Every structure is written in structure tokens, then in C-alpha cells.
Amino acid sequence: MEGGVPEADMSAFRECLSLSWKNPYVLRLAFSAGIGGLLFGYDTGVISGALLYIGDEFPAVERKTWLQEAIVSTAIAGAIIGAAIGGWINDRFGRKVSIIVADALFLIGSIILAAAPNPATLIVGRVFVGLGVGMASMASPLYISEASPTRVRGALVSLNSFLITGGQFLSYLINLAFTKAPGTWRWMLGVAAAPAVIQIVLMLSLPESPRWLYRKGKEEEAKVILKKIYEVEDYDNEIQALKESVEMELKETEKISIMQLLKTTSVRRGLYAGCGLAFFQQFVGINTVMYYSPSIVQLAGFASKRTALLLSLITSGLNAIGSILSIYFIDKTGRKKLALISLTGVVLSLTLLTVTFRESEIHAPMVSVIESSHFNNTNTCPEFKTAAMNNHNWNCMKCIRAESTTCGFCAAPGDMTKPGACLISNKNTEDICGVDHRAWYTKGCPSNFGWIAIIALALYIIFFSPGMGTVPWVVNSEIYPLRYRGICGGIASTTVWVSNLVVSQSFLTLTVAIGPAWTFMIFAIIAIVAIFFVIIFVPETKGVPMEEVESMLEKRFVQIKFWKKRDSPSEK
């Protein structure tokens, strides 16, 4: 089939499971290539937990939010470059080679990260990992798509998506497992080397994509592989379909200019919808939750790093479940309606997060002169001593946001919401604070509203994952005419990565500058704008044949009453 991956329904998944005894060779191809998706998910998720411990070894990372953001976002910058290079390597050298190169980059990056002697080396390692992520994000699903029987292709490509979210969930489990091990974060970041080596070994024993071989004139090699993939009764039809598809594709590969794209009404309007959805998918804050989830949990008032990682498992697990639910809802509900339901839930969840964090700031525990006097005077935060002499009241929020010196809040023993001490933030004072079984806070403050924030975070994922987590990808696979689908899909993917980079690079800076409450309010406002955008610019493509989507965009049909069934152009 040409023009995209067939959507996976439950019958396709049942047939996919039957391959385990009917044709295990196909599952071997899919799972071997799918390890790239697992690595993609693991390397994007593992940094959230590792950040909590990197600051213990490199104090500069703990003090400087821009350094934390750089460690996270340089991988995304690498992914943008990796995706661009990966497209060329895919076409020039093949999908198999591209996957192996991505694994080599994962392996090199993991080794550099595990052995990093300073933050600068960490950033270099993250660039290598990002290059691997960018290449894997293109090569793995493409290989699976081109090496799978048509009737189960959608299900097997969806396997790659499951492995991405599964990899993120696995990264939180690995993070949790190594919290008490010597070298904590080094193990967390280095473990990715193992699946990279496994995939290299597996891919060396597997064939190249039959479609790529056929396109490069290696027809006999392609036919040998296709005989292993398809049943005898389907083989001749699939060979003919592949031949016609490749011939059509070669005819459509003439150079297309940007001006030609913009002058074509249907393509221009398709880009508005596709790139707009990609932009809003990132700017409603999903990857701040995935990259900084443990940090957000600490901002909510949970001081323990282990507890922060444990609670972050909730968001990662719900994200994986949501990606499975989307398979059912995407065709049952429709793309536009599902996106609007998803965004409405996202707005409500972000509003709840805003209110919760604001209440936590207002009711933050006070800093007590008496409590602070329990510690050596040299350990007391200098700014607090100045404020106390001038009879200024300080609370925990003022303490952890002190400007001239990095300070932390040592909570009162027993009831942590009672007045505590404000001390200079370093390993020594953290240890002294812990002697009396007090909790040490440097990011958030003790709060009675912490659990509400966790519930709001879970609701955010529940609403986002099955809807806005999936709809932009589906719409971008359907909305462009065949001859423009490759370049338009590339533009949409670039929009995703660049938007991801901007959001991840600015999140922690915003939480320090304006506080988490107002940061989440900004995301909520963007989500409200997204609702209106979807209503006005995004067409409903459910049940509309791909050849009719173009004519629908030409007529600029704005379906405000999105809940009503719309006739396809052929019915009018």
C-alpha cells in the first residue's frame, strides 16, 4: 500500500498475535527493528531521573537551571540533525544500515555519559544520543512498515510506538532500581548501551528492507525476502503492487519547491493543520512532563528523590496505556473530536495544576529564626539573616529562591508544614538537616496540596496521550497529497522537534523566573488557543478516502459542528 501506514484496528492486532505461530519470521523482523523505538523512549525518559542525581556530583548542575536544560535539550537538537541526516542515509544506504548507525551512536553516547568527568562531557554524550534518537525515529518504523504483510502493517508499526512509551516506562524503573547503587546516574545513562549492542547483533543477521532493495534494482534479493514475509496466495499480488508503487514513487520524486507547496491551496491548508497540530502538541507541555516529571513532583512538595521517581512512574505508565487506548479511540471517535476532547481535558488538568501550585506558594511554611538557630550560624542563609535583622518575614518559597546565595529549606521535624530553617544549600547542610529526620527542600516546599498536583499530572496524561499524543501523527499521515507527502511530513516532523527543543530548553527557567503556577497557566492558555485552532483549521479525515482529502481542503470546509457526521465529497 502507498501513501502511509494502514491504521491498526483490534482485528489487525489479533492477526498480528497469530503470527507468533504462523510466521514468526515477520515478528522477528518487527521486534528486532522495534528495539530502536525502545532505545528512543529510554533515552528520552531516563534523563528525567538522572538529573536528580547528577547535581550531587556536579554542584554546578544543581545551581544552574540553564545547565540542566542544556543537558536535556542538546539531545533534542541532536535529534533534529539526526532526523535530517537519517533521511539521506535511509535512501542512500538502506534502512538496515541506518538502524545500525543509530545503534552505534546510542552506544557511543551511552559510554560517554556513563564515564563523563564533567557537565560539558555530559552534553557531548547527549548530542550523540540525540543523533541516534533522530535516526531511530525515522528508520525503525520505516523498516517495520516495509518488511510487514499489508494486513498487519499498521499493528506492527504501532508496536514501535508502544516500545517508545514502554522504553520511557522502563527508564523510570531503571532509574528507581539504581537510586541506591554507587554511581546512580552513571548506571541509569549507561544501561542504554546493552539494548544498542543487542540490536546491532540482531540487525546484522537480518535482511535489508525489500522495498528499498526493489527500488535500487535488486529485485531478486527483494523477492527472496518477500517469499518469507507473505503467504503463497498473496505473494504474486504483493509483488505486482510493490512494482506499481515503486514506479509511481519514482515518477513523483521530481524536485518540489517551497513556493510550489505554498501556491497549492490544498497543500498550504494541509500544512496549516498538520504543522499547527505538531506545534500545539509540544507547546501544551507534554515533554516538560516526560523530561522533568521527577522535578515537577519535587516542586509539588515531595523532597525525596526516590519518592519523586516512584510517583513519576504513574505518568510514564499512564502514557504507555494511553498510546494503546488511542488505537481504539482514533477511529471510533474521529480525529477532530478526539483532539478537542483531549485538549479540553488538558486545559482542566493544567488549570488544576496552576491552582494547586499557587496555593502551595501562598501557604508555604514560614522560616523561623528559632529553627534556624538550631544550626551553626555559618550555615544559615545570608539573605535570611539580613531579612531577619530588618524584621522581614520569610517563607520557604523566598528561601529557595534567594538570589545572592543558593539556599534550601530544612523542614520542621514531624509536621513539615510548620516553620523550618533556611540554610545555605550544599551537601554538608543537607546531611546536617537529615540528622534530625528533617526533609531537605531546594526545588519545592512542604505542602498539603502535593497529592492534588500528582492527581492533576495523572489526569493531564490520561487526557493527552490517547488524543493529542496520537492525532497529530495520524492527521499528518492522511492530509497531504501523495506527491507532496514526503516533504510535508518532513516539515511537520521538524516542527515537532524544534517546538520540543524550545519548550524543554525554557521550562526550568520559567519555573524559576515566574514560578510553576504561572508556567502551567501559560501552557493552559496555549491549550485554549489550540482548541480554537482545531475547530477552525483541522478537518475531520475519519472515513474520508485519501484522494478526497485534497478536494475537501480545496473547498476550505470549516466544520464548526464537529460532532455531526459529515458527508464525504463523493456523497455530495
Automatic annotation (TrEMBL):
GO terms for cellular component: plasma membrane. It is a multi-pass membrane protein. Keywords: Membrane, Symport, Transmembrane, Transmembrane helix, Transport. GO terms for molecular function: myo-inositol:proton symporter activity. The keyword Membrane applies. The chain crosses the membrane at residues 29-54, 66-85, 97-117, 123-144, 156-178, 184-206, 271-293, 308-331, 338-357, 449-475, 487-508, 520-538. InterPro entries: MFS_dom (IPR020846), MFS_sugar_transport-like (IPR005828), MFS_trans_sf (IPR036259), Myo-inositol_Transporter (IPR050814), Sugar/inositol_transpt (IPR003663), Sugar_transporter_CS (IPR005829). It is found in: Membrane. Coiled coil: none annotated. Residues 29-542 form the Major facilitator superfamily (MFS) profile domain. It holds the Pfam family Sugar_tr. It comes from the Eukaryota. Belongs to the major facilitator superfamily. Sugar transporter (TC 2.A.1.1) family. This is Inositol transporter. The gene is INT.
